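Final report, results section. Input specification for complex C-07:
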Amino acid sequence: MSSINYAEKIPNNVNLATDRTLQRALEHWQPHFLQWWGDMGPTDFQKADVYLRTAVSVDADGWAQYGAVKMPDYRWGIFLADPAANRGVGFGDAMGQPVWQQVPGEYRSTLRRLIVTQGDTEPASVEQQRLLGHSCPSLYDLRNLFQINVEEGRHLWAMVYLLHAYFGRDGREEAEELLARHSGDGDKPRILTTFNEPISDWLSLFCFTYFTDRDGKYQLKSLAESAFDPLSRTCRFMLTEEAHHMFVGETGLSRVVKRTLEVMKELGTDDPARIRAHGAVDLGLLQKYLNFWCSSSLDLFGSEISSNSAANFANGLKGRPDESQYDDHVLRSSTFKMQSPSGTEEVPMLNALNEVMRESYLKDCEIGLKRWNRMIERAGHAFRLTLPSSRFRRSIGAWAGQPVDPEGKAISKEEYEKNLSQWIPSQADRTFVHSLMQRVIEPGRMARWIAPPERGINNLPIEHQYVKLQ
Ligand code: BYC
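Structure output:
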């Protein structure tokens, strides 16, 4: 097990002190990162004491320590999972050969592009969420938001380390660019569409952490299979932190459903207008938010038929999540049947890997919905939450721009446009949700639209003062 050196300016378990050039380059980038955090990170909470977990080892048991920290003092560092002994390439044409400790020249630009795309999402999400602290439903939630934010900052460090350590001058330039693009910026937006969507209310945050962080899980798992070993090791450790982000999404949405069901019981009605008048989120409104964020996140898997995904797999750069669960790791002779707007197509499996991953992602997304639907059923209501079809509201791939309803049925453009505000949040819906976002900062108290969590953080009571505002 490699331990983390916290005495250094940049905590790390990669022996940074032995590579003075790299250390200097990263120490040069560090103040730029801190400047970015000050400018683009959570607004107005930099002096607050936040009960945060900080990574102290990459050991699966007890990898983190908890304590009150002011966010700008968080020890962002570089932590790679321990190397796996005798690891060989696990898929593609170079299957079985030793993994790479350096970047092969022929894959340099593709790997850099993958790392930059991954890296770009991390600060983007912090930027998207920067104003949310002002409307937190509780101190517990506020702390979770900040935990996610500092860890996304650390994930940026993880990718910047790879860029600096393995991609020379181009890598250093890319690291600067990661701080120069901004979510939603007209001139220099973030690379992937979802990361330019505003997240201005907590219902969106919970949907984002449920759906978009789950894409993160799938992408990180597929990069953790990479033959480029430092990338694999980095992603393996990032996944440990990522689990909490999805937990925030899943439990956040469960708590919204729970509270709504309580209000429905109290009022003896399922009338959305009355539920809203009582300050809760009616289930139809929640469905619209699910439709919005799920469809947006489905685009993050890329096109259904992709020569990039085929080359990335064949060359050992990016595998499938949990590659070892499959029998065939080369995929030169299998095909995949998929539906496109022009009918059923049979395509080489290698070109269909984005779709394969999207399908297993959707199955994973179903888990939360089953739980929420059980709660609704037990409360005696017929309403069921559903995931939208993967053809609905797509901007990338074969279904991009196709008028399709949330069940996946092709419809006319007019019908689509007429009904869209029934399927995703309308301006009026968003205005209503924003009206619920009143900040609650009394320890243990929750906003009216959300139930308390089942338990606090790290065995502390829910009433613990997770954030001390200054
Ligand atoms: N928006 O063959 P295609 C996370 C581009 S989330 C804009 O269709 P490919 C997190 C694509 O870049 C995980 N552009 O797809 C979550 C390509 O452009 P170039 C992030 C898009 O390449 C919450 C062109 O279209 N990690 O960690 O097979 C909080 C054709 O590409 C989009 C990664 O994504 C889009 N939605 O797959 C914080 C992993 N989709 O290169 C963090 C790294 C596609 O021709 N990235 N394009 O100019 C990748 O593996 C791949 O780039 C993608 C696309 C999966 C994104």
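Residues 113-114, 117-118, 121-122, 125, 152, 192-193, 212-213, 215-216, 219, 299-303, 306, 308-309, 318, 354, 396 surround benzoyl coenzyme A (CB under 6 Å). Strands lie at 49-55, 64-70, 335-340, 343-348, 467-468. This concludes the modelling results for the funded period.
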